[in-house]
Specification:
Layout lengths: L4 E5 L12 E4 L4 E3 L5 E10 L5 E11 L2 E8 L7 E3 L3 E10 L5 E9 L4 E11 L26 H26 L21
Parallel strand pairs: 3-10
Antiparallel strand pairs: 1-8, 2-4, 4-8, 5-6, 5-7, 5-9, 9-10
Length: 198
């Protein structure tokens, strides 16, 4: 279950593009997940219209392109929850899903239209990014995984290599820094000697 918090008022131009509502969350497009554990997340629902509206969130789990299960998400124990005109609400909470290596798809329904007005999805995987399930296609989004898509394993490997190179260079610059400087003489016994000239 998620709980409701009002974030801010927005103008229709600031919302993410849905005519009757928008849904988005803080989950990455691919998330490592073990079936049956809590998946903490914050869901945001925006009402970009000039009228108060009621929405419902529906969660579907898809494997191999087929929907395995679908059910509504309760917000403050309500299936339909209100969102004021030109505002965004935050729904912090967690989801428990009985599957991994699946696509998790959240749909936003608007009560007056009685249809889905926006969708967000995430790939839940136990094997890293190599075994990503197929996410639904959205216009304008690049393909994830497969041929010609994003290979997260290569990106992470490149990032780690670059971090190691930067750390090595930093260590080497610290060693080279002291090479050209003359050594300062040290006095034994800690006493300072002065020579007076008459």
């Amino acid at each position: 279950m998620l709980s409701r918090q009002t974030l801010s008022r927005v103008s229709p131009q600031q919302a993410l593009g849905g005519v009757y509502g928008d849904v988005f969350w803080n989950l990455m497009p691919a998330t490592a997940y073990v079936a049956g554990t809590e998946l903490p997340c914050t869901v945001y629902v925006a009402n970009p219209t000039d009228e108060d509206r009621e929405y419902m969130l529906s969660l579907a789990i898809s494997r191999a392109g087929a929907v395995v299960t679908e059910y509504p998400i309760r917000v403050d124990d309500l299936v339909w929850f209100p969102v004021e005109a030109n505002s965004v609400i935050s729904l912090p909470g967690s989801l428990v899903v009985g599957y991994s290596d699946a696509a998790l798809i959240m749909s936003l329904y608007e009560r007056e239209q009685n249809e889905v007005v926006d969708v967000v999805s995430v790939a839940l995987t136990t094997t890293g990014t190599s075994g990503l399930p197929q996410l639904p296609e959205f216009p304008g989004m690049p393909p994830v995984g497969g041929n010609g898509g994003l290979d997260m394993g290569s990106i992470v490997s490149l990032m780690i290599t670059m971090m190691i190179v930067v750390m090595m260079m930093k260590m080497m610059s610290g060693m080279v820094k002291g090479v050209g400087e003359p050594a300062k003489p040290k006095m034994l016994g800690g006493a300072e000697r002065r020579r007076f000239v008459d």
